């Protein structure tokens, strides 16, 4: 888990006595450039037409997309010379909520890591070298598989509710931002802030729905002033239509979970005295298939872990950087 330390900061967008040399068109061009970059990065979140499940790889891509957008938005804001101290408190509140959200998502990923440990333990016990593993190893492997299968039915409800609450708080915070044209530095900061906030709510909502099983998550519709509005609105609608009717929507976990059940049942047959050649062949084949699925599951967990850690570090770096402004 990460530790987030609160701090009293002097100024986020620091005031200056210099006057901006930019005209409204310059700010509008800067806003358009960020929009076009977001459209480009959104292509990493495209789903195949025949997709029926959300994958761990998609979740990790979504979190990495969010990190990239935060970094590019920050680079744009730092290049502004404007007076915008009134966004100081708002941003610090926003960034702290995002860090808290990363911590909660990290805890959900750790539950997947626990399940990976149970899978790997059972696979080590089910080692077909010369003969069928002895009964004591078979029983231990079966117990590990039972615990792994049951683990997905034990969501961390309290943390899920807190994560859902954070998304609602972020949406409410965004609602306090004024709307209007981009004619100056303050307008561009406001617009940029709103953009990263909306995208955070979108990605965060998907993660919370998938990892915690929470429903009725906030879904913000992006206003038409953003060039990427149709793209995000379309992806959001498709994603939630895909995961809404499912209890467990992770592709890699669904695949390996079905294999766990098959192997668990075959072990029970063997333990009950059904150790014939046919059962051995099916069990050995099932173990190989589960090992392949477990590898994909493990790679997906690692990618998502790296993605969440990366988002946390990005937001924390931006937040700490403003301490020195």
Structure characterization notes:
- With 325 residues, this protein is an all-alpha fold.
- The protein has one domain (24-40, 48-250, 294-324).
- It contains nine helices and no strands.
- The protein has helices at 24-42, 56-78, 88-125, 135-151, 157-175, 185-212, 229-243, 251-271, 277-321.
- Helix 6 runs parallel beside helix 7.
- It is elongated, with a radius of gyration of 24 Å.
- The two termini are 28 Å apart.
- The model is unreliable at 1-21 (pLDDT under 50).
- Structural class of the secondary structure composition? mainly alpha
Distance between the termini: 28 Å
The percent of residues in helical segments reads 55-70%
How many separate helices? 9
Structural topology:
Elements: H1 24-42, H2 56-78, H3 88-125, H4 135-151, H5 157-175, H6 185-212, H7 229-243, H8 251-271, H9 277-321
Helix pairs in contact: 1-2, 1-6, 2-6, 2-9, 3-4, 3-5, 3-6, 3-9, 4-8, 5-6, 6-7, 8-9
Main features:
325 residues, 69% helix, mainly alpha, 9 helices, disordered N terminus, elongated
Brief account:
This protein is an all-alpha fold and 325 residues long. Helix content is 69%, strand content 0%.
